[in-house]
Structure formats: C-alpha cells, structure tokens
Amino acid sequence: MATINENYLKLKAGYLFPEIARRVTTFTAANPDAPIIKLGIGDVTEPLPEACRTAMIAAVEDMGDRNRFKGYGPEQGYGWLREKIAATDFQARGCDIDADEIFISDGSKCDCGNILDIFGNDNTIAVTDPVYHVYVDTNVMAGHTGPANEDGKYEGLIYLPISAENDFTAEIPSDKVDLIYLCFPNNPTGAVATKAHLQAWVDYARQHGSIILFDAAYEAFITDPEIPHSIYEIEGARDCAIEFRSFSKNAGFTGTRCALTVVPKTLTVTASDGSTVDLHRLWNRRQSTKFNGVSYIVQRGAEAVYSPEGQAQTKALVSFYLENARIIREQLTAAGITVYGGVNAPYVWVKTPNGLSSWDFFDKLLNVCNVVGTPGSGFGAAGEGYFRISAFNSRDNVNVAMARITEKFG
Ligand code: MLT
Q: Where do the domains of the chain lie, and which CATH numbers do they carry?
C-alpha cells in the first residue's frame, strides 16, 4: 500500500492565497455584480516591458529557424543572461559575484522551497513572525517541524518576532540557529534593512557557521540609496549567504516565470565526516538532476531587462507601483489608519482599524468595500491585527479602492 508524506497533514489549512481566492469566489457567487478590486496577492497587472516582448518575439523566431533553434539549454541558465545579471545587479554594486555563481530558475518561491534539498534535516531554522509563509510551509513539508500549536506556530521552528517596536527587523538570536530566512524589502511588512542590521546578521552567521537564506525578490523597489539591494553588499556574506531574486515584480514576469539564485563558490558546510562541502556543487547537482532550465524564449526576455531600454522600462514599472504604494499609504494615513512600509516596497502593512482581527477586517473590506487584501495573521501569529495591501494594480483601481476604504473607515 502506498503511503504519503505525512508532514503535509501538519500544514495549517490551505495555502494563504488559495484560501483568500476561495472566500472571494464564494462572495462573488453570491454577489456576481460586486465590483471587486484585488489588492491581495502581489501579482502584477501592467503589461510586460516592450524590450522584453520584442526580445521574446525574436526568440520565438529563432525557434522557428533550424540554425538558431534551441533544445535543452544549460540547467544553470544561459551564460549571456548570467553574465549580464552578474555585471549589472551585483558587480556594479560592488558585490563580488561571478556569472557562474548565478543559477537561473522559474521562480524564487520555487527556489526558496527547493533549496532545502541540499540541507540536512537536523538544522535549527529561524524565521521572522510575520513571515512569507513559503519558508515555513516548505520546512513543514520537508519534515523539519513538529505540529502547529493553536497560534499556528510549528514546533521546532524558531520564530523571531518583528513589529513596529523593532522596525520590523528581528533581533539577532542569543542561541545558535543554522538556517536563517531573511526577506528584504520585507514581505509582508514592506520594511527594509540597513547595512548595519545585515552586517550584524552576517557576523552572527559567520560566527556560528549558519547560512542566511536571503530573499531579495523586491530589491528593485528600494528607493533609499543607503539601503543595500543585495546581501553581498555586506562584508563576509559570500561565506554565509544564498540570495534569491526574481524578475516577477520588477519586470512583470509573474506569469512569464524567471528568477535567479546566487550560491557563491566560497559557501561551505562541514559534513558529518568532517569534510568541507561546497554548497554551489550541491545546488548545481540538484538543479541538473531535477530541473531542465528556463525556456530560451523567457531567458531572452529576461536578458532584455538589462538593455538600456529594458532598464528604463522596468524602472518606470517599479515607479508606477511605488506611486500606487504612496497613494495607499497617504490615503489611509489621512483617514487615521496606521500604516507601515510602502516606501521601499510594494506592500503597505496596515494596522487594522477599530481593533478588528485580520480576518474580520478582510471580511469587512470584501463585503462592504469589495476590496481584497491579505490578512496579516496569514503571515504568522504576530501578524494578527494587521493587514497587507499590495500596490500591484492599475492606478484607477487603487484610487477607487482607497476612496471606498477611507469612506467606510475614515
Ligand atoms: C505575495 O503576494 O506574497 C507574493 O505574490 C507571493 C509570491 O511572490 O509568491
């Protein structure tokens, strides 16, 4: 008889966004004419940059020509894309990252989960609370936790609380943790980390032989020149950090799928036999066994992000969403609602008005304003009493949604 991975049975309810979608579907079935505006999942709405479309169309033509046709590509990604990423995203910022330390993939969510393949099952794992739930759920699936308690916290994980009191940046733990997930700009709170904060984490990781899993999916939204875009801007990070990045939010690739993970060649872990193992080799082995690379057409689209036109167009896209974030922040603040984030990030973290619980506010917004957001408690126990509003939508929808919310809650 077949058995299952029983760790899946420990998972609390559904994955957050399908649960939201289920509630919205129930509501729209009963209210088919309700003009719903979705500011929930951080999914982009604006068209792909022209530079990317043009490059992808040309790549489709390549695929129609016997001489230019491509079959399987390198599992790690094409060199021409990895070179441009290394030069533009890392070396130009003073980060010592080479093209062959970059692995192209179909998403940073996938990679954040897949990376666990190369780590042991006995690591102590720290996440912030609230947190991007993928880090937690993938560890539950991998059997790295016990069951969840009534707050939704899993036995065996170390939760580092983040709140307005600590600027949504976790205190460095006093105990030793082996794997630490950090996400900056932060999903869900929209907070950013200073160089000094990241340096403290890198120093901690080097002192304890820990690995930082650094999710930089939203780095393009950083507007403050003092805020680092990459963990590799921090001295010593090459020896203790893996970084995840994505084309989803800066270039609108949520449906196109392209991302990258950086595993420096200097990153090593000591195996149980005392030997030194380099994680780059393990990740390379994992990717070449389980992954056949991102399509040639999509990688050509991603490459176009690095052309002068692509850089200007992606910058304009990011500015567009940041302006939405500004509108959300300012309108809610003017209505007397406390908000955080949304300056260097596309997410605004809202204190629910009138002491409402996160899901009560969700239901109220849906029923009364026909606006969908994300309940903060879906990101962890410490997110209770908060609500995330995403800036990814058209300007008109953002304006209408804010007018509806401020009219009811202002
Ligand atoms: C979010 O809304 O948190 C993100 O869109 C999720 C993701 O990028 O996977």
A: 9-47+309-409 (3.90.1150.10), 52-307 (3.40.640.10)
- Cα distances (angstroms) measured from residue 26 to each of 251, 369, 372, 377: 32, 16, 13, 21
Q: For residue 286, how far is its CA from the centre of ligand 1 (angstroms)?
A: 24
Q: How far apart are CA 17 and CA 165, in angstroms?
A: 28
Lowest mean pLDDT among 39-43, 201-205, 252-256, 260-264: 39-43
Provide residues with CB under 6 Å of ligand 1: 41-43, 109, 187
pTM, to two decimals: 0.96
Indicate the angle between helix axes 395-409 and 308-334, nearest 10 degrees.
Answer: 10
Note the pLDDT tens digit of each residue in 370-388.
999 999 999 999 999 999 9
> For the segment 246-276, what is each residue's pLDDT rounded down to a tens digit?
999 999 999 999 999 999 999 999 999 999 9
Looking at the CA of residue 254, tell me the nearest atom of ligand 1. 8
Question: Which protein residue's CA is at the shortest distance from atom 9 of ligand 1?
Answer: 109
Q: What pLDDT, on a 0 to 100 scale, did the predictor assign at position 13?
A: 67
The residues near 84 (Cβ < 8 Å, ≥ 6 apart) are 303, 306
Write down the pLDDT at residue 86: 98
Ligand 1 site-directed mutation target among 17, 244, 321, most atoms within 8 Å of CB: 17
Question: How remote is the CA of residue 41 from the centroid of ligand 1, in Å?
Answer: 6
Tens digits of residue pLDDT in 26-35: 999 999 999 9
The residues near 376 (Cβ < 8 Å, ≥ 6 apart) are 130, 188, 349, 352, 358, 383, 384, 385, 386, 387, 388
CA of 365 to the centre of ligand 1 (A): 20
Whether the CB-CB separation of 83 and 218 falls below 8 Å is answered with: no
Tell me if residue 156 falls in helix, strand or coil.
coil
